Amino acid sequence: MANVDAISLAGQTSGTASETNAGSSAKTADYDAFLSLLVTQLKNQDPTAPSDPGEFIAQLATFSSVEQQLQTNLKLTELIQVNLLNQAANVIGLTVSSADGNQRGIVSSVTLTDNGLVAKLNDGSSLTIGDGVVIER
What we know:
Elements: E1 7-9, H1 17-20, H2 22-44, H3 53-91, E2 95-97, E3 104-113, E4 116-121, E5 126-129, E6 134-136
Parallel strand pairs: 1-3
Antiparallel strand pairs: 2-3, 2-6, 3-4, 4-5
Helix pairs in contact: 2-3
């Protein structure tokens, strides 16, 4: 029914958490800073007078928690992208109408952007698929 090959990814990247968007890059910087501070503390620790073991364990637990949160956010981002790609594939070939009714046409391709799905219609115009857009089956 839908031609998945017509879907393109524009403005989206995959891979590390630092590549997903500006908000997550700030989180990654915090994560990197935390890791750097922890390593520096371990390097400069006096082996004859180690720091409080309870505090060290708490720091390691925090480090582990931050790592898990970053991985969870990364997986959620990937899941959202897969969901959007499925939606895009299902819209190709269908008729869509804008919320105000001024624009209507058959979807020839769909682009996944940072703002969501943008349908290219058979007349060459584009329509962002969002609130109020009617998709006719």
